[in-house]
Design brief:
- The protein is globular and about 50 Å long.
- α3 packs antiparallel against α4.
- The chain contains four helices and seven strands.
- The strands form two sheets. It has a four-stranded mixed beta sheet, covered by helices on one side. Strands 3-4-5 form a three-stranded antiparallel beta sheet, with helices on one face.
- By secondary structure, the chain is α+β, with helices and mostly antiparallel strands.
- It has a single domain, classed as Endonuclease, Chain A.
């Protein structure tokens, strides 16, 4: 999977990964990217709950496809288990999962950026920006869906 992600990056594909903890893929340093190659952006979010969405959003030619699955992209899950992904076809469910992804991408309390230097830089709110702690924000978001 790492080889395929790096190959896609070299072909100019934008890749943004949200991971719970560590990631075996080490992004290429910006100054070592080849012409046309896109940097892989990896954000780790570790917080109170051991949850993490296994939501996959793909863009191609202006069209979005979303899948949700049972496994993360670890070797044991890809090679030694039966795991499933299902396409998200219902527009309401698609929107809800899309909103959840956006909340996670905007986390500026518990998120860390995993980079080529393995610095795990903490994401902080920009001056005047509201704090987003994604696990709590998702909980609040989902409460509004119930009522």
């Amino acid at each position: 999977m790492i080889r395929e992600l790096l190959k896609a990056s070299k072909a100019g594909v934008d890749i943004r990964l949200l991971v719970r903890g560590f990631c075996c893929l080490s992004p290429t340093p910006e100054d070592e990217l080849e012409e046309g190659e896109k940097p892989i952006k990896i954000t780790s979010i570790v917080d109170r709950y051991l949850e993490h969405g296994r939501i996959y959003l793909f863009h191609h030619g202006g069209k979005e496809k979303m899948y949700m699955g049972s496994a993360d992209w670890m070797t044991r899950n890809l090679d030694r288990r039966i795991e499933v992904l299902t396409p998200i076809l219902d527009p309401d469910v698609f929107q809800e999962l899309y909103d959840i992804l956006q909340i996670q991408l905007n986390d500026n309390v518990k998120a860390r950026i995993l980079d080529a230097a393995d610095s795990n830089t903490k994401v902080s709110p920009i001056a005047g920006e509201a704090e987003v702690r994604s696990q709590y924000a998702i909980y609040d978001y989902l409460k509004t869906k119930i009522n």
